[in-house]
Design a protein that fits this description.
Largest sheet: 5 strands, antiparallel
Structural class: mainly beta
Order of helices and strands: HEEEEHEEEEEEEEEEE
CATH architecture of the largest domain: Sandwich
CATH class of the largest domain: Mainly Beta
Strand order of the largest sheet: 10-9-13-14-15
Bound molecules: the ligand Nc1nc2c(c(=O)[nH]1)N[C@H]1C(S)=C(S)[C@@H](COP(=O)(O)O)O[C@H]1N2, molybdenum atom
Distance between the termini: 33 Å
Shape: globular
Number of strands: 15
Length: about 220
């Protein structure tokens, strides 16, 4: 995996991470060294970093030309898109988990943005019809993740669908999978396969199992 990263971003924000939570980063996280570029797509966060090379232009590597570009409606691919404008994901309860039964759950997740501080996060428990402000559990810092939570009482109903959205003020709302996001290109249900910052929804089945839904 080889990526061209503008020098400006490297000098401003780049972290070369060798540890997490008081121990060496784990093999699946990129041991022994991982490049972290806060706010940018995770696919630029090179694991098992071997070298940094300087160049006066992008290297045009396989991944950055064939994969991490956005196919636009006119058939041309836009190079390069790095920033996650705003993104959120509910980490609990999330896919492949199983709720033991109806009752109280504390929905919890992470939100982040390359554009600055996450100011608020909204959660819906009815598939996006109604939105409520979530509690921010950590202090939002620029280009950092913020943890949010939302108390939820699951009545055991099948197919309860819940989701979170991170509106960045002013003027940017995390895109909905149901809308066509033309700006993100023509390829795939979210506008772009590789740059995906759309709202992520989870559904709970009657037996408590949680799965991904495109709703
Ligand atoms: N060395 C190396 N780093 C890599 C990759 C890779 O193939 N090789 N894949 C990238 C991609 S495409 C993604 S989505 C993220 C996944 O990181 P995660 O396992 O922490 O979620 O790692 C990135 N870093
Ligand atoms: Mo990826």
């Amino acid at each position: 995996m080889t990526r061209s990263i503008p020098l400006e971003k490297m000098l401003k924000d780049a972290i070369l991470a060798y540890g997490q939570d008081g121990e060496a980063i784990r093999p699946e996280q990129g041991y022994p060294l991982r490049l972290i570029l806060p706010g940018w797509e995770g696919n630029t966060h090179i694991k098992g970093l071997r070298r940094l090379e300087l160049s006066d232009k992008p290297f045009m590597t396989r991944e950055e030309t064939s994969k991490y570009t956005d196919l636009m409606p006119n058939g041309k691919a836009r190079q390069f898109s790095f920033e996650m404008e705003a993104k959120s994901v509910i980490t609990f309860p999330s896919g492949e988990m199983k709720l033991p039964g109806p009752g109280f759950y504390n929905i919890s997740g992470l939100a982040w943005s390359a554009r600055g501080r996450v100011q608020s996060v909204d959660v819906s428990i009815d598939g996006g019809k109604t939105w409520y402000p979530a509690r921010l559990d950590t202090v939002p810092e620029p280009i950092s993740t913020v943890r949010f939570s939302f108390p939820w009482s699951w009545n055991g109903e099948s197919a309860a669908c819940y989701r979170a959205a991170a509106p960045m003020k002013p003027g940017y709302l995390q895109p909905d999978t149901r809308t066509t996001d033309g700006d993100r290109g023509a390829n795939g249900p979210f506008g772009s396969v590789y740059h995906l910052n759309a709202i992520q929804s989870w559904a709970v089945a009657a037996d408590g199992s949680v799965s991904n839904v495109h709703a």
